[in-house]
Design goal:
This protein has 151 residues and is of the alpha+beta class. The chain is 19% helix and 35% strand. The protein contains 3 helices and 9 strands; from the N terminus they run H-E-E-E-E-E-H-E-E-E-H-E.
């Protein structure tokens, strides 16, 4: 499925801000702007702010209050890392971030228990039969995760 295009990091932050308002969540945003500030630009030279192509990279880290605990890191390369209750989802397309958060806060995200070999997976279904799935680290089952276990 194609999601509404979020052309910039700021557009993605605005979309997350709308979801936070819908669910009455506190939201904290930290912006890192410039090649010398963003996390994936470790090769940027000293005092280098622009990328070689002349663009100004913008990265945002968003913490959403409430339950479950969610943080979103939006990268300039059109992807994001979303952490739900200490479970990291890497390489989520920036355009899919709002759908991902709607799934989490809308009650669609759940934990799947696998009996053999024993494992717990956090599944976040998105529209058009796309599901993001990550292994829950041992001994890190929070109350929210435990409440959402499905066999």
């Amino acid at each position: 499925m194609t999601y509404p295009h979020l052309a910039t990091t700021e557009a993605a932050v605005a979309a997350v801000r709308e979801i936070a308002a819908e669910h009455r969540l506190d939201m904290t945003v930290t912006d890192d702007i410039g090649a010398d500030q963003t996390s994936r630009r470790t090769s940027a030279g000293a005092f280098t702010v622009l990328d070689p192509d002349g663009s100004l990279p913008h990265e945002a880290h968003i913490d959403l209050g409430g339950t479950p605990s969610v943080s979103v890191r939006i990268f300039p390369e059109d992807d994001a890392r979303i952490t739900v209750e200490n479970v990291d989802f890497h390489d989520i397309p920036r355009d899919a971030v709002p759908a991902f958060l709607r799934s989490v806060y809308g009650g669609l995200a759940h934990v799947r228990r696998k009996r053999f070999p024993p494992a717990l997976w956090l599944l976040v279904p998105l529209p058009a039969d796309t599901t993001h799935k990550e292994l829950i680290p041992p001994m890190s089952l929070s109350p929210w995760l435990a409440r959402n276990v499905r066999d």
